[in-house]
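User: Design a sequence. Structure:
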């Protein structure tokens, strides 16, 4: 016969175990409620299916897009919803087939433009368990962009008057903050706009370095007190650049005005001097620029007395200044004087979320400029998303203006692209009947280039240097294609 005390202890242990299970169950329920609240409060559509295309969960945002309660979708296959005409297309099948993240642009039944991205969720065996789809309404983003532009237009009348009086030449080139990378850059630019530290903006040609410089100026107290003066150091002959920057006294050299001339530093007094292509400065001018930055004073050519200035300098370059320092073509002391707040703007191919909003913004701007109302097909926009933009934002802007002006159709499509865009490297743009999309072809080429480089080099830094991109991009891409270095 069991002892009563032993039986009591056994019951007590059971009771403690039950309490723990109940406590865990409650915590799990709380976490599920929190997760549901987070998903439901997302402005973008979140749609979760299993590997068979069965809808597991979606959020309230889908009601705004489809006008159908979210509960209707749960427990239904996407195939069935497409057949009934409730969904226009589904990214689920594409993700299951390609076993990777897939994105495309399409219109819903109300004509709203959507950016749809499907992401696979893998189990421990590397098999797809679920697909999480995110749908973003680009139409509303475009409308907000248009509203922002309209609000900016309202300010232009008095601003132009003020700029004329102050001799300013500041042009609003348009800013798109769709990608996380660019949004963070402009958040930082906003934070440092009212400090006087020197800024060095780095990035490829055409990424928008001058736009960022103007943004910093426009959001600072200097915008009210002084001018924004831009000097392209690579566009002015070296023998003239010194007098352009520092000015000259009357009769300082043959042909000089007898009254002398103020240089760009003086014109930018109490404002901002933007030195673009800073890497093109000669070593002798680098010495004089360093002195101006350190002493906050300049000496005109032919002058005998230094002149105090109050100027914030923002410099920019597409060259690798650190390598130039090692080669002896750029002064180390000037490099560190300029590199107080370095800002690297990624190329357009590394921030593809910005491409469609930029396309829409440039298209609207060109339509307005030439009093037109042209549109672009989703096929063409998908090409823009996939294309490797060597000329970045400037190239995209110029191409859109060219397409609008030379295409005689209302709807601009992929076949209207100039000849040089109809191939990406050796890869032809697929026709609508091709089994391979342009994005797939580009990704195949990208994978082959990365695989080849991975065999040749020992680490991702060497690969990034060889392929002229950033190391984080190489790491992300190699993980995407499951590529490892071969050495």
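Assistant: Done.
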């Amino acid at each position: 016969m069991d002892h009563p005390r032993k039986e009591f202890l056994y019951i007590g242990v059971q009771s403690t175990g039950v309490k723990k299970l109940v406590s865990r169950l409650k915590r799990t329920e709380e976490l599920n409620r929190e997760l549901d609240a987070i998903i439901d409060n997302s402005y973008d559509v979140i749609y979760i299916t299993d590997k068979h295309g069965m809808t597991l969960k979606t959020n309230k945002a889908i009601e705004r897009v489809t006008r159908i309660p979210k509960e209707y979708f749960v427990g239904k296959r996407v195939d069935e919803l497409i057949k009934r005409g409730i969904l226009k297309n589904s990214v689920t099948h594409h993700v299951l087939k390609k076993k990777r993240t897939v994105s495309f642009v399409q219109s819903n039944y109300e004509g709203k433009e959507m950016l749809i991205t499907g992401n696979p969720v893998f189990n421990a065996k590397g098999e797809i368990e679920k697909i999480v789809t995110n749908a973003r309404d680009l139409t509303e983003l475009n409308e907000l962009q248009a509203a922002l532009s309209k609000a900016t237009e309202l300010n232009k009348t008095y601003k132009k008057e003020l700029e004329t009086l102050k001799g300013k030449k500041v042009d609003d080139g348009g800013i798109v903050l769709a990608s996380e990378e660019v949004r963070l850059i402009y958040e930082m630019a906003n934070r440092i706009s009212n400090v006087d530290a020197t800024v060095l903006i780095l990035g490829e040609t055409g990424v928008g370095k001058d736009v960022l410089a103007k943004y910093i100026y426009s959001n600072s107290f200097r915008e009210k007190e002084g001018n924004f003066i831009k000097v392209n150091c690579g566009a002015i002959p070296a023998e003239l650049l010194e007098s352009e920057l520092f000015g000259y006294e009357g009769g300082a050299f043959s042909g000089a005005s007898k009254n002398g001339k103020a240089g760009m530093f003086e014109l930018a007094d109490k404002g901002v001097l933007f030195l673009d292509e800073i890497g093109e400065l000669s070593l002798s001018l680098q010495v004089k620029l360093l002195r101006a930055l350190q002493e906050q004073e300049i000496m005109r050519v032919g002058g005998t007395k230094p002149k105090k200035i109050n100027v914030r300098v923002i410099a920019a370059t597409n060259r690798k200044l650190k390598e130039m320092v090692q080669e002896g073509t750029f002064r180390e002391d000037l490099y560190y004087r300029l590199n107080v707040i370095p800002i690297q703007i990624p190329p357009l191919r590394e921030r593809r979320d910005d491409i469609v909003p930029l396309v829409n913004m440039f298209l609207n701007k060109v339509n307005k400029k030439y009093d037109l109302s042209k549109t672009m097909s989703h096929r063409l926009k998908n090409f823009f998303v996939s294309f490797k933009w060597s000329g970045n934002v400037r190239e995209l802007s110029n191409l859109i203006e060219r397409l609008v002006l030379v295409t005689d159709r209302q709807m601009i499509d992929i076949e209207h692209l100039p000849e040089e865009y109809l191939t990406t490297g050796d890869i032809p743009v697929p026709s609508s009947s091709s089994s391979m999309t342009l994005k797939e072809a580009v990704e195949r080429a990208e994978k082959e280039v990365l695989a080849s480089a991975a065999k040749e080099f020992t680490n991702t830094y060497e690969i990034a240097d060889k392929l002229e991109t950033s190391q984080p991009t190489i790491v992300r891409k190699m993980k995407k294609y499951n590529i490892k270095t071969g050495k």
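Residues 40-141 form a domain with the Beta-Lactamase fold (CATH 3.30.450.20). Residues 160-173, 425-435 have pLDDT under 50 and may be disordered.
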